[in-house]
Write a structure and sequence with these properties.
globular, 15 strands, Rossmann fold, homotetramer, Dihydrodipicolinate Reductase, domain 2, alpha/beta, six-stranded parallel sheet
Chain lengths: 344, 344, 344, 344
């Protein structure tokens, strides 16, 4: 039985508690929050779970094997590091930490301590995203041409992070899981419409070694909610719409065919583009709640010493892009090279 | 009676002929095309309209008062210039010409000859776009925050122009008409997925003097068709979806409210963002075909010596961005300053 | 403080407990269910709420002021009657009881005991349905022409009731609230696709005194989910789509205009139909959970001796139609007169 | 070369002329209309096509092999009969004639004269409907459970026919083609909202020998356009939405599974309903214009003496239902038996 301590019972913490509570092989032994009313809420819902307003007390609690952290981004590093140093396994809400350097230090600390470090890239554990990865991996899509996502709505303006760190982090984690290659540079643009606040609208383009491109579009100030990703490939193309009730993933047998041929009159090679259109298939998806799958995966990794799917390296790849994109955005889109690739 | 000669009876020419044919105060006196089968088609449809395979003959025809040009982009400048020099009024399919310099020379030639020069920014004449301009102009939207458009589908790969010149030109012309200000710089990214061909996917960000931003998203290689524009404002927000059957424009009484207030404990000013949500209104739109409105407008300008809504200056503002965006795209998003603004 | 006892903790009971639990002025004092595991679930979620496997014990409990019943339809009458006889106020899940006669006896019992009898017509308490009623009442819609609803999906086949009693009951309760008049006859058709089971697809037409008609379309065996109601009126028309995320109610300024005029040549009156098309408005709706509004309303009625909006008479009007429709369905659509109208 | 004469150049006639004009093996030799301005329009569009204001002259013209009739319903019989008697092949807009008796006499006349009689059930020739038939015929759908269509919008109120004859005729012709069985009785309800006019809203239920049911829902007075058909089967279910741009037909691998089993305690057989959910497939459809396919089919039948897919018998099966439904509607849904089945 893996005993989980959860730090932070604000927006996301209740989901962590609920899911770890119901994960076979795990139990929630303790929850901490700085606000007494949040702790009272824990007690009314889970009378058997211990509570404390001291994060350190929870971290040092010998009845806690693993710590799940659901606090503001700026506190991730400090809490995770202390937990790893206390010999705990650690599960951290996305993004893993506030800087590349912090993430690197957490990876080192986890490795040194021989403990599991996992970042909560929730979407990776949805049936929809797992299906997309499967379609890319088994060759159904062919060569990837582009990854293009839009995530906009009238959303809460965050105080400590900009819209890239709040929303694009989801798309970057999905892309990191689905795409077989990692980007080499980023160009980002964006703006804040509120004086003194962080950017609330942003656009990222990611460049790759080959003929791939990715684009992310995020906005806290849109009148309608859009959660749509297109993946273009040489054989098929995917539309992933997270707002669809049932058919979230649609696979289109559509695209172009390239016929290289000699144009004799011009004595040169010319490419003829042909167009292909076929069936559309919306595959049946596993409807299990992502966080339930993810909680079980974490418990499995802790129990059997496995490497999580969304490990420190995954967290690092995502934070590298977040950091570079924020820098590019300050320079109105000037492309920023990404650090040498972390192998997937 | 304004006698129109139409050069080019390929994809768009038939629409020009049909609309000018039915415009009161105008007639189509002649059509030219280099392909005999296209001319035969003209004759079968309009037995009374003269045809010729010589563009020059049409341009010099004394029975032609105005020339409408619907040929490939690279030929616009030469044909339009010759027509203006022959004393004809000129109507040119978008974009007005292939370079900023060419457009500038056409503007000068039209001015020198005292002839009307109009560019076919068709969408400007739709009921939907006219309504959007009205909503911006009468203050309903408040201060504009952003203009964000997506125009993607599985479309014909053009040989001579990239996807920006083919698709984004529509959005730039709409934006030029709707927005009260003009951009000062552009950052663009994009890629060609076909060796030796022009870019088939592209993303443009436009910067303005103030706190506005615009983003355009175009793609010839998408599995689904999207034609959607969001306009965010301080009072209301617009969603314009050109694929909707009837409610193409939706106005959302949604947004944020800013309350600047003193946080005494911190001795500093802090901004509080509030959220507002109200009714959505889809105004009734004039369903008249845009090209019919536009053809009548051209005939009116020619008849009464008026300046067209989409004149040479409008064409110039759009081509300036197309040119700068193509340059930025080659440099992976490095921002390019736009030439000094042409007054609207 | 009104102390509520809830009978039945299956599909709907948990929603009742949760909402009454959080309703100011009320508390849930006891829950009964015949299944021990359901009671265990109650205890784990609400440690302070008493549980019992005896419905009678709960009914007779002096610490219970009002009984909420969420059990199979066939048991409603017996339980509600016993509760009223024990001096309790009663809240019953829809439909109020299994026959017109039973409903009539419950109404009489409540009146005799001076207790509140309320039926859980949940949709009546949604922001969307309240807005529809408002639009009808204030004359915005004009004269009602028709009420037309579709409620289909791949749903649970009920064992004891047919699809009319399970699904159409929702639409009948909405219609009863929204429409200013009550039907005088019903023609219903339907079929069971499973030998020995109740009808899983059904269609009802309701006739009124005047020039109104209503139609209900219900199906447990549809591949897609549809929850759409059209209300046609002489001035405006409503589309209510319960699956829309935000714009559930749309009001169309569309319709026909009737111009009665003399056709001189024919020496008779002829009607000319004109068509009118205007704006569409999606009014902002109160997003409060319906059951929360409804629970507060029940507590208010009990506390202050008020008549509920969805009282026994509303329950009776709905069950009269359910009963007659089931009879008509057996006779392949033969119209059945409805009993003399219960005044609204 | 089959020489076609077209009677009636109003709403539908131009489509017939255009398609027969472009059908290989056919030409349009003559068009008649009672209105001079319509004939002038024909001449301006097709200078080589002869025109006449005399229907009889066209019918008797020896340069006409086949007559296509696109006139009001009440005139179909007379014109078609005269054309058959004059030895012409006949193509008639839907519905074939205004009464069952008239249709029967046309069938007899065609048979007696050895001429082709074809009714213009246009939808039967769309890629979408042909795909549906294919899916039913090859067993993909399994046993058919129901056919359920909705065809509503703000449409032109017809003067001579009610909404069943105008709109439901489309769905009946599609159903006649797609369903493997024919109905035995109909119950219909409906209403006119305009005094003295025909019914503008109607609902039809069709009963079959077996466990099938069909329902049609038509309305000229709806604020939104809906063109949707559901076909439920034991193996798969179809949604056909004619307003979709590309995926008009969707095939859902969803449904119920029936497990008959002995309930030992009750000593009886009980059915357990299970639910099945799988992929959804939108098959690629032939995009050819239906009327083009249909015109070629008529020409082929005339040229080679074949029986058309939509022959007199198909027209008869549809008119039988239209007539019975109108009768049932007068009696508020009382079921009307359909005449002995015409073999398909």
């Amino acid at each position: 039985m893996i005993r989980i301590g959860v730090i932070g019972y604000g927006y996301w913490g209740p989901n962590l508690v609920r899911n770890f509570y119901e994960t076979p092989g795990a139990c929630v032994s303790r929850v901490s929050d700085l606000r007494p009313d949040r702790l009272k809420l824990v007690t009314s819902r889970y009378p058997t779970v211990g509570v404390t307003d001291s994060q350190q007390e929870l971290i040092e609690d010998p009845a806690v094997d693993a710590v799940a952290i659901a606090t503001p981004v700026r506190t991730h590093f400090e809490l995770a590091l202390r937990a790893l140093q206390a010999g705990k396994h650690v599960f951290v809400e996305k993004p893993l930490a506030a800087t590349v350097e912090q993430v690197q230090r957490l990876i080192d600390a986890a490795q040194g301590a021989g403990r599991v470090l996992m970042v909560d890239h929730t979407f990776v554990y949805t049936g929809a995203v797992r299906k997309m990865r499967e379609l890319v991996e088994d060759g159904s899509i062919g060569d990837i041409y582009y990854y293009d996502s839009t995530r906009v709505n009238l959303g809460l303006f965050q105080h400590d992070v900009n819209v890239i760190w709040d929303l694009a982090v989801h798309d970057l984690s999905i892309m990191d899981y689905v795409m077989p290659c990692t980007p080499v540079a980023v160009s980002a643009t964006g703006l804040s419409h509120v004086a003194g606040a962080t950017e609330n609208v942003a656009f990222l383009t990611l460049f790759f070694e080959g003929r791939q491109i990715a684009h992310l579009h995020v906005n806290w100030l849109a009148p309608v909610k859009v959660r749509r990703t297109l993946v273009g490939g040489s054989r098929k193309m995917i539309v992933y719409d997270d707002l669809e009730h049932s058919e979230k993933v649609k696979v289109y047998d559509k695209g172009i065919t390239l016929n290289r041929q000699t144009d004799r009159s011009e004595k040169m090679y010319e490419v003829l583009v042909g167009y292909r259109t076929g069936d559309m298939l919306a595959p049946n998806l596993d409807p299990t709640e992502a966080l339930r799958v993810e909680a079980a995966h974490f418990v499995d990794c802790v129990s059997h010493g496995k490497q999580p799917l969304t490990d420190g390296a995954a967290g690092l790849r995502v934070v590298q892009i977040l950091e570079a994109a924020t820098e590019s955005m300050k320079q109105r889109g000037r492309p920023i090279e990404l650090p040498s690739v972390v192998l997937k």
